[in-house]
Fold each of these.
Amino acid sequence: MNWIERDKQSIWHPFTPLLGVDDPLYIKSAEGVYLITEDGRKILDAVSSWWVNLHGHAHPAIAKAVAEQAASLEHVIFAGFTHKPAITLAENLLSILPDNQDKIFYSDNGSTAVEVALKMAFQYWFNKGDVRKKVIAIDGAYHGDTFGAMSVGERGDFTKPFNEHLFEVEFIDFPTPENESKVFEHFKNIIETEEVASFIFEPIVQGASGMRMYNEQFLDKLISYAQDHNILCIADEVMTGFGRIGKLFACDYISSNPDIFCLSKGLTGGAMALGVTSCTKEVIEAFTSQDLHKTFLHGHSFTANPIACAAAVASFELLTSPTCRVNLSRIEQKHKVFHAKIKGHPRIKDIRYKGTILALEFFTDKDSSYFSEMRNQLYPFFLKKNILLRPLGNLIYLIPPYIITDKELDKIYDAIEEFLAL
Ligand SMILES: *Cc1c(COP(=O)(O)O)cnc(C)c1O
């Protein structure tokens, strides 16, 4: 049996129907922006392997850090014990997060980083003797696939089988220039109930709902208002963090500082699973007690895994290097030029970019959702050209590793233009 047959006999893949789909591609290795198949085919990974890769695949500095860490301390329980990679990484992260961030809580993926944030916020109020059960979230949000994360996310086809098990959340409309004042009124009304524990949002760009971008000043206004009313603001930067939209964090574009940050995806440069939830001193103070009832009784087996932390420390060095800064603005500049070139094309409904992300929505006469049939045209079209673009319905987006060259970007833009010319 070959690898694909063996895969099909034993594996259930994520977000993938069990019938009627093409076989998975067997990837033997990866290097830089390329995924390499057994027969030597090189596929340009324009989606950074689900938005996680920053500096290219199998980066030697990250590989070395992982190998060295694995050979000296691969894992240790993180309750009652600590280690250098976790401490170094926490210090590094606090040095680039907004000044109000005081401590780092580790977990092992984006969904758990969000679960931790929500639980922290609920228990913050609980510990203060004020039970608050409402969370405010934004329509179309995606915060992960576990139950808490699903609860604060868009209720749609993805959550339908589970909706009755999700907790109550107040959703405000996705902000647009037309509805901002209405959304703000709604937001104020919800907060007036004095039952709100936290406000969670993907700052500036909503990823899974189609790289939807909204006004940063308006987000700033929502956060300031919420904080004036002591509501904890949770920035889910799982996707936007670590330079993805140009600055190190999306919240670097605004003047207010959220109370809690959720980080994952690019945290380790895309090499290892790791999640982080950071919070302010004020949150910490609500938990500062010898009383076990006020303790945050949450943890995962692989909390602060040393190998994952070592990968993150290595990635941090690359991220904060001048080379990386140059790459971030170079990619945005390239997107800008391509945007100017093809916006207004009759087949394009909308094209937008921010930092390293470029999203392009096509007109379709049919369903424009994730279930749009257009996906079945787009995905194979680009894959045949050895470009991995994973559409969301009638939308494609680029979210490349930061080391992608101008020439490689041009190859993707050219392929998009070819598709438009069909
Ligand atoms: C991907 C994502 C998550 C979930 O992260 P996982 O590691 O896939 O669990 C949460 N929030 C945002 C904004 C994301 O893009």
Note: The first strand starts at residue 27 and ends at 31.
Amino acid sequence: MLINVPPRSACTPSEITPENIYLSRRQFMGAASAAVTATMLPGWALADGSVYSDVEPGKAPDWFAEKQSAIHWKAVDVKGESITPFKDATQYNNFYEFGPDKGDPYANAEQMVIEPWTVKVDGEVGKPGTYSLEDIIRPQQLEERIYRLRCVEAWSMVIPWLGIPLADVIKQFQPTANAKYVRFETLNDPQHMPGQRSSFSLLDWPYREGLRMDEAMHPLAILAVGMYGRVLPNQNGAPIRLVVPWKYGFKSIKSIVRISLVSDQPQTTWQSMAPNEYGFYANVNPQVDHPRWSQAKERRLPSGLFSPNIKETQMFNGYAEEVAGLYAGMDLRTQY
Ligand SMILES: Nc1nc2c(c(=O)[nH]1)N[C@H]1C(S)=C(S)[C@@H](COP(=O)(O)O)O[C@H]1N2
Ligand SMILES: [Mo]
């Protein structure tokens, strides 16, 4: 299996070109392009959050600020594809705890209380316990992973996440030989999550997701704590969320409060609600349609009504070279 993740040393400060430093943020903002231009700026330039243009700065907690100067930028890139503007990535969301409409998370997620934050770790692990977010992040280096995000609803974005490999975090908990799957749970807080109070919601809470152990240990799977060079906005799953770029977006569970290592395949939220429509694996696959729509193409945001940006969907969302080996011998039509 070819793993396309460059070593941590692959991107050094010497690669920061004078042009990148020279061009001010304002000049980039003036560029007549819908694309946000990524620049590689040294740590000191982060003071105003200007790694990307048009980013609303977030108030970084100490554990995040401590890591900022040593971020390994562009640990994974998407070559020629444009990064989705910050505004689209943070105002067009799925986070049903805050409501069913795409603008609801942006409007409502500010209510979520993210400090202090703990993650309960249990099940088949040598080191169960309730860990503070700081405890989980402190031993790790933050990496930037620029990934495609493909929603099962057939829209997609390209998002520069900041995070840590899930595998490194799982190893800290010392999984036992019986650990075959990882189960994740989102915060349950109806008082601050209006979608959880709604009697119209078809989902049962807390939101749950899961991965097979080898998927969870794959180097492309990360826990994100930031995006666009800043701390994660609440509507994107602050303070810590999963990102599994080769699977449909619903697998990438937000605002995680519990990680359980288990021996049996866990029940997941969307699969429990409509098992004929949403499977446990949910690998992006242009050949296996959703029962109600085709998955062959996708709408890459921003995509206007009069200038739709339609792309062919790629097998495993473009990460086949890295992950296809995980599914060797499986029938992806029945194991969707
Ligand atoms: N807890 C929780 N996690 C969630 C969701 C949700 O409703 N609740 N929606 C999922 C879906 S369907 C998608 S497409 C992605 C969207 O991530 P984004 O809003 O950061 O782009 O989050 C996923 N994670
Ligand atoms: Mo989604």
Note: Residues 60-272 form a domain with the Sulfite Oxidase; Chain A, domain 2 fold (CATH 3.90.420.10).
Amino acid sequence: MQLLSFVSLLGAASLAAAQTAPGNGTVTGKMGDARPVKNNPVGEVWVATFDGSQGVKGTVTAVGWTLGVNYTVDVTGLPEGKGPFNFHVHAKGVPVNGTCADTGAHLDSFVRGQDPPCEASLPATCEVGDLSGKYGKVDAPAAKKTFNDPYSALDKIMLGYIGERAIVFHDASSARIACANLVKKA
Ligand SMILES: *[C@@H]1O[C@H](CO)[C@@H](O)[C@H](O)[C@H]1NC(C)=O
Ligand SMILES: *[C@@H]1O[C@H](CO)[C@@H](O)[C@H](O)[C@H]1NC(C)=O
Ligand SMILES: *[C@@H]1O[C@H](CO)[C@@H](O)[C@H](O)[C@H]1NC(C)=O
Ligand SMILES: [Cu+2]
């Protein structure tokens, strides 16, 4: 009886160790977990417009909320057979020549890096810009998805500021298939 409970204790201990192994929850930003943003201008709207010239057509909208930002992805034209698609806020905007390669890496305000991948159950430990890592990928041909990200900021002085940065869609090979800048709606 005593031995049995000792054995089950050991089992529980190794299970706990497995759950906190590197790559599952122990990796966070060098500046700590992303901080929830509570002072965004509620209702302020930013839109990334995909005009179809890169195949993807539609919008990714970011609306200020009392906790971070509400995003709505509403796009068509995701290429069949190339998904599922990741999408991120990247660190830089799209240059005038439209090259998605020049949008930098994911927005990573708390300096976490991409490896190991984001653990969706622990979104504060993920890169701020890794929206599909936190809230799920989308698939071809059309995607409509709404979610709240507590860590996205609409104020330039805040960590996690997403304004004027690019939303980038990647295919399953991680190629950057389409990008557009988040622009403040007048
Ligand atoms: C991480 O741990 C959680 C439970 O804490 C588990 O649900 C999840 O599957 C684990 N993820 C990985 C990648 O091991
Ligand atoms: C933002 O999303 C929350 C739910 O996550 C919802 O209660 C709220 O009404 C939304 N706000 C706006 C401005 O869309
Ligand atoms: C596009 O513009 C960026 C920024 O000015 C530049 O670094 C890059 O070389 C350009 N790419 C092409 C293909 O013209
Ligand atoms: Cu990306």
Note: The domain at 34-185 is CATH 2.60.40.200 (Immunoglobulin-like).
